[in-house]
Write a structure and sequence with these properties.
With 279 residues, the chain is mostly helical. The protein contains 9 helices and no strands.
Length: 279
């Protein structure tokens, strides 16, 4: 006789096997999950980086603007290499990652150097990476409108930093008494200005350059505020998720307790009925 205190369980029918479909080419660490703030940032960086790469291909080899874009390209490559290491060490199946998205992520972290043909060819792998990035951004747009706004702000902010740096280099390098003369000067000035540090070693002397500097300062403040808000939102969601899990566990425990009390009551009634029946 089965124990009535045990809850009934459903057993799979003979021959039935659980079906698990694994997409080998799915985004690493985002399968069946909402992309995180980190994934959002990497996707935005990939979209902007492909624009910088295409812009480089349209410029003369000895152009200072191209030298400036190459510096930004090195920065994106450093971010992509860190992303490759992050994906590898956090992947549940490291070997699977190495023969699916791993080679593309690693190749996209190679800077586009004019004297190395292989490096220039490796830049084409970023086209594959941007396909994945657009897919992630599409998921964010469908599921979370607020996060999609943050993504657009990050994309616009990064593109503005690059565009303003190029514009300042263009208007300043021919001005009398200018200190921003090369792509390296413009890159350094852009970084310290967007960080609102302002060392004062490189400053725009033209009215247009000064207006662009104000724009870059405002964008820098907005970027840091956006990143801070995204990080705060990430922590808040994690706390809410933990609270939801705890609440669900409490509900399940109460259901199990009620089910056990119900079975004990049935068992007691059956026992009482058998004792009262003389036959």
């Amino acid at each position: 006789m089965s124990d009535p205190t045990k809850a009934p369980t459903l057993q799979p029918a003979a021959g039935d096997e659980p079906q698990h479909h694994v997409d080998l080419w799915a985004e690493p660490n985002t399968v069946d999950h909402m992309p995180s703030a980190y994934d959002l940032f990497i996707s935005v960086a990939a979209v902007v980086a492909i624009g910088v790469l295409i812009w480089q291909w349209t410029l003369e080899p000895d152009s200072e603007v191209k030298a400036l874009l190459l510096i930004f390209d090195w920065g994106f490559c450093a971010v992509f290499f860190v992303d490759f290491l992050h994906n590898f060490f956090t992947a549940e199946r490291k070997l699977r990652y190495l023969y699916t998205w791993g080679p593309f992520d690693l190749a996209s972290s190679i800077p586009v150097i004019a004297h190395l043909r292989f490096a220039r060819f490796a830049g084409l792998f970023r086209v594959v990476r941007i396909i994945r990035s657009v897919r992630i951004l599409g998921q964010v747009y469908k599921r979370d409108k607020a996060a999609s706004v943050v993504a657009m702000m990050m994309m616009g902010g990064i593109a503005t930093v690059i565009g303003v740096s190029v514009a300042v280099l263009h208007v300043e390098r021919t001005a009398p008494g200018a200190s921003i003369l090369t792509g390296r000067d413009a890159a350094w000035w852009g970084v310290v200005t967007v960080a609102t540090v302002g060392y004062g070693d490189l400053v725009p002397v033209t009215p247009t350059g000064q207006v662009l500097a104000v724009v870059l300062m405002v964008v820098g403040i907005g970027l840091f505020a956006t990143f801070a808000g995204a990080i705060a939102n990430l922590f808040i969601r994690q706390v809410q998720k933990t609270s939801s899990v705890d609440s669900l566990e409490d509900r399940l425990m109460r259901m199990e307790q009620r089910q056990l009390e119900f079975h004990q009551s049935i068992r007691q009634q059956l026992k009482t009925s058998n004792q009262s029946d003389p036959s």
